[in-house]
Amino acid sequence: MATGGLLHFTNPLSSVVNPNNTYKQQQQLLHNHRGSFCNKLFSAQNRKRRRRKASLIVCKASGAQQSRRGGGVDADIDVGQDRLSKVPISNIRNFCIIAHIDHGKSTLADKLLQATGTVQKREMKEQFLDNMDLERERGITIKLQAARMRYFYEDKAYCLNLIDTPGHVDFSYEVSHSLAACEGALLVVDASQGVQAQTLANVYLALENNLEIIPVLNKIDLPGAEPDRIAREVEEIIGLDCSNAIRCSAKEGIGITEILNAIVEKIPPPQDTVENPLRALIFDSYYDPYRGVIAYFRVIDGRIKRGDRVYFMASGKASCFYTLPLCYKFISNFDCTKYDYYADEIGVLSPNQLQADELFAGEVGYLSASIRSVADARVGDTVTNYGRKAEKSLPGYEKATPMVFCGLFPVDADQFPELRDALDKLQLNDAALRFEPESSSAMGFGFRCGFLGLLHMEIVQERLEREYNLNLITTAPSVVYRVNCVNGDIVDCSNPSVLPEQGKRKSIEEPIVKIEMLTPKDYIGSLMELAQDRRGEFKEMKYITENRASLVYELPLAEMVGDFFDQLKSRSKGYASMEYSFIGYRESDLIKLDVQINGEKVEPLATIVHKDKAYSIGRALTQKLKELIPRQMFKVPIQACIGVKVIASETLSAIRKDVTAKCYGGDITRKKKLLKKQAEGKKRMKAVGKVDVPQEAFMAVLKLEKEVL
Ligand SMILES: Nc1nc2c(ncn2[C@@H]2O[C@H](COP(=O)(O)OP(=O)(O)OP(=O)(O)O)[C@@H](O)[C@H]2O)c(=O)[nH]1
């Protein structure tokens, strides 16, 4: 275009500078052409300026977003995009890595990124895809992560979309999300540990999703590695052909090329449905304070272009902030379902976000559409084109059911709105999190939150504190009890403090889980003892190999919340693993145990316990609280009660703590400093009447298990 414009513009000029013209003729010609000459010069300059400005905006936008995601890809973005978008659908492979916790998924993902040159050596760090501080500190994957890689196989370029998944049982819903976006899975098994509970659970999930499974035996560099035996074990237990299982060491970089080749050879390419109406499955999303909701999706059918008008089928919602005046939103009875979003930005994850103009069926990418309401773009939703809607949405995901509930209260009551906002945003990134407002006289306003397990609960609390700068008090976790009332009502109760009174309830049912423990035969005895102590009902025991057994028990979920997992690990020296699933409710002899501090009932400390254990738990709880609550300037009785009957009691003796006592005279700033230090120490406490109760006291009931049993 630019060249065309210039040619047009040089023709008249060449006639002006014709050497055969006299000076006067040239002046006249110049004068005649000045108008058009200047206009053309001006418009050409303008065009150039506009182009420069536009490319500057694109660079700025991509630069900003890369720095936010911690990336460093620069000028070759467009070149890279061009190359990638030219890959035919038959050369695309979508796969995820599944394994038991710590079998080496993230380490393998790192090596794949490195081997394909997706991440340069200087940018490489351990657990590259785990970009949350929390994931790095704990060495676990919490969120699934996606990355697009380019790989040359037999002189052809392939586009490999990798999704790394978490291994812990609490985050298995993340695994199910990734599986639906893939055609294949790398099943990583530690060659020294063999098949574990989550290996089995994840394989079943992958088979349900009809994925091609490639077995990979990792950690062959370890002295205790027995890849041949483990290959036989995988064949026996899972029934997967392991004759060609890849032996690898993600740490040492052995077997990485074989894995990449196997991905290309064995995993089928996505189906070519580019001509169908757009259907893209959202498998993850998060809230960006600058750009609104960012959704990660896999295009199942059709294509999506930047600027397309898109429609979220499940939310049945869309909005056009650009084309309709904002005031429309506030007109009563306005039909929100007419709204739609514009895809301002689409792109691929490489693993940083890289803008693209168009994505086709089979590709994995992200979408930003200035979506402000987190409820409008939920994980599991289907994105379609507003102008050419798909008839049916994709199956989506089963809703995750929270198993464990606890109260989250801001230490500073003013932070309540911030906490609500933070939970809202976090829920977008964490589909299993549930919350509803709760208030109590001791704690003020807060939220009752539901989690999939204790690790999930800990992670959410830490993320709220770190990412949203909140200071929180967490109450002891509880499960959801089902209370059959005398008047025939059935009440679901996740908060012991609101359990209907003794006279009003007929019976209490508690959730039961079926738990399967895989253990070397040496630890069968101690694990059976553990399950029996926790009111477990023995169901089945079978040897899955010569040395390993599977133990199946049915046990109350409440007994598993707490240190069951830690006990399982310590009693089996870390060799046993477990997997559980909810099977239903069962009536049980349960009562509510209240705690009184200084004569005042502390609702958040109330728990529901089995009648047989009430006395021992009451005694241990009061002793624990005595250790945890700092001494006050007066005597503090701590009592455990059933109804009005006190079953255990301890007394905290008085102390007069004058931190400035040692300061005789001297500078006032010194005294102030001491008082300030003391005040800081009190921050994490909640005043119950006159007594300050520290955070640890609310979790005391969790720490009792060993002493009570
Ligand atoms: N010796 C040896 N260690 C390995 C190998 N691969 C991984 N590891 C180590 O195993 C530990 C766990 O590795 P990760 O990659 O974090 O495991 P993961 O499966 O991603 O863990 P989660 O995401 O928490 O489920 C780390 O300490 C790794 O350094 C290997 O091939 N050889």
TrEMBL record:
Question: Mind telling me which InterPro entries this protein's record contains?
Answer: EF-4, EFG_III/V, EFG_V-like, EFTu-like_2, G_TR_CS, GUFP, LepA_C_sf, LepA_CTD
Which residues are listed for GTP binding in this entry? 99-106, 164-168, 218-221
Similarity remark: Belongs to the TRAFAC class translation factor GTPase superfamily. Classic translation factor GTPase family. LepA subfamily.
Q: Which domain of life is it from?
A: Eukaryota
> Which intervals hold domain Tr-type G?
90-271
- Identify the keywords attached in UniProt to this record, alphabetized: Chloroplast, GTP-binding, Hydrolase, Nucleotide-binding, Plastid, Protein biosynthesis
Q: Per the UniProt entry, what species is this protein from, by scientific name?
A: Papaver nudicaule
User: What is this protein's record name?
Assistant: Translation factor GUF1 homolog, chloroplastic
MF terms from GO for this chain are: GTP binding; GTPase activity; ribosome binding
Q: What does this protein do?
A: Promotes chloroplast protein synthesis. May act as a fidelity factor of the translation reaction, by catalyzing a one-codon backward translocation of tRNAs on improperly translocated ribosomes.
Q: Extract the PANTHER family matched here.
A: TRANSLATION FACTOR GUF1 HOMOLOG, CHLOROPLASTIC (PTHR43512:SF4), TRANSLATION FACTOR GUF1-RELATED (PTHR43512)
A GO biological process this protein is involved in? translation
Q: Which PROSITE patterns match?
A: G_TR_1, G_TR_2
Q: What is its EC number?
A: 3.6.5.n1
User: Looking at the Swiss-Prot or TrEMBL record, what is one Pfam family this protein matches?
Assistant: EFG_C
Q: Which SUPFAM superfamilies match?
A: EF-G C-terminal domain-like, P-loop containing nucleoside triphosphate hydrolases, Translation proteins
Chief subcellular site?
Answer: plastid
Its GO CC terms are: chloroplast
Top-rank EC class of the record's enzyme = hydrolase
Where is it localised? Answer: Plastid, Chloroplast
SMART domains in the record, alphabetically?
EFG_C (SM00838)
- Is Protein biosynthesis found in the keyword set? yes
Q: Tell me what reaction this enzyme catalyses.
A: GTP + H2O = GDP + phosphate + H(+)
